[in-house]
Each structure stands twice: as structure tokens, then as C-alpha cells.
Amino acid sequence: MNNKNHIIQQMAVFGDKLARYGLVHSQMGNMSARFGKRILISRSGSMLDELTEDALIEIDLSGPGPDEDLASSDSSIHRAIYQKTSAKAVIHAHSPYAVAESLITLARTSHPPSSRNDTDSIAGIARNQERLKAHPLSRGVRGTEKSGSHICIISEEIETKCLLHEIPIVPENIDHLAKVCADVLSTNVALLVRGHGTIAVGATLKEAYLYICSVEHACKVRNLCRRAGVNPDFSPAF
Ligand SMILES: [Zn+2]
């Protein structure tokens, strides 16, 4: 993505899609693309479904400049990601199911649930804990995995499982959030910031958009399973 006009046109296209499909709202969320040693990023307060050239601003890849205050307040995260990875595009969205899942998963990982067949009895909890220990992916709850120091969602939905493999959840209230996000995205295509939203990277804005949508889809499926009384972390294996 070296052509600035093409980047502007793509930002308008995918900013509109993000809003149209409910993945961002109002002035929330942001996106950027790298070209050469510059980053084109949405301005602070801009609406992603109204992105024109005036709603974007160029900042330097190497560090903050005089226009930094005009850029999205997450510009330091975008810059850290470009400095650490080969990404050419970054999208951040406050997708509702993803936000909810980041909160639910971390809460449930702290207090692993019983399966549908187990009651909340002491015996049921003990059986549940034994099953968790036995599962090859589980260092927490099935459906989650610990990657480095981060709990990850493992989607049980086939397409997104293949595409994303795992979705790490990063706490929102840590020091050096930009560096942590960049580190995680050097080995993953998307992450969740707890209670906040998704950050996805790609070689193009289209690819980053695909990952934003895929995270939301995976989280929505988990939510719908729970609503139907099925624990997505304990779906029966065939
Ligand atoms: Zn945000």
C-alpha cells in the first residue's frame, strides 16, 4: 500500500463498512495504514464512516511530531505495532460482542464453570477441575489458552479457528500498553483489549478488516451458544 490516494479510498470503504455493520459507533475506533516511513491515521474525533482526506493525518513512523495531538489518541499503539511488525494496516474497533467476550472470558477463567452435566456440587467442581487439567489446550478453561502471559480465546467456530487460531486478551490498565500490543501482534493477527475492543493488523486494510470481523463473529457465536444454554468451552467432541 504505497499509493496514498489508494489508502485514503480504502480507509473510506472500510471505515464505512465498520460502522454499517455495527463494529464501531460514533467517533469510536480508529484505523491507519503505513506507507514508507509515514503513517496515515484517522484524526482524533473523526467518524470512521465519514473518512475523507481531511479526516486523516500523516504522522511519522519513527516517533511523535508536532501534529501528534491531532491524530487518534491511540496513535502510539499504531506506531508501536508498525515498528515491531511487518503490518501495513491497523484497525481498532469497539465491536460489542468482542468487548463482552473479553470481560466474560477473563471472569470465567478466574472461576472455571461446571459443564452442563455437573452441578455446582463439590464433586462437580472437582470433576470439572480434573477435566481442565487433562485437556491439552487448557491451562484455564477449554476454549481458552494461556499464550505467554495472556489468556487467549480459542474459537470453536471452524472458519475463525483456522483463521485466527487464538485471540489473546490484553488487560486495559497496564503500563506500556502500546508495547504489549505490538509484542502480541508480532505473532498474532488480532487481540482483544479487555473491556475495550479489538485491534487487528494486516498487509492491507481489507485483511485487517477481515480479522476484525472474524473476531466479532467468533465472539458472537460464543455468546449465542451461552444464550442457548450451551457452554462453548465444553461443546462435545466428535
Ligand atoms: Zn478504543
What does this structure look like?
This protein has 238 residues and is an alpha+beta fold. It has a single domain, classed as L-fuculose-1-phosphate Aldolase. Helices cover 39% and strands 18% of the residues. The protein has seven helices and nine strands, in the order H-E-E-E-H-E-H-H-E-E-H-E-H-E-E-H. The chain has helices at residues 4-20, 75-84, 96-110, 122-134, 158-164, 177-184, 205-227; strands at 30-35, 38-42, 56-60, 89-93, 144-147, 150-153, 167-170, 190-193, 197-202. A nine-stranded mixed beta sheet has the order 3-2-1-4-9-8-7-6-5, sandwiched between helices. Helix 2 (75-84) packs across helix 6. Bound molecules: zinc ion. Zinc ion binds at residues 92, 94, 196-197.
**Per CATH, what is the topology?**
L-fuculose-1-phosphate Aldolase
What topology, given as strand order, has the largest sheet? 3-2-1-4-9-8-7-6-5
On the 0 to 100 scale, the average pLDDT is 83
What is the tally of helical segments?
Answer: 7
Structural class comes to alpha+beta
- Radius of gyration over C-alpha positions, nearest whole angstrom: 19 Å
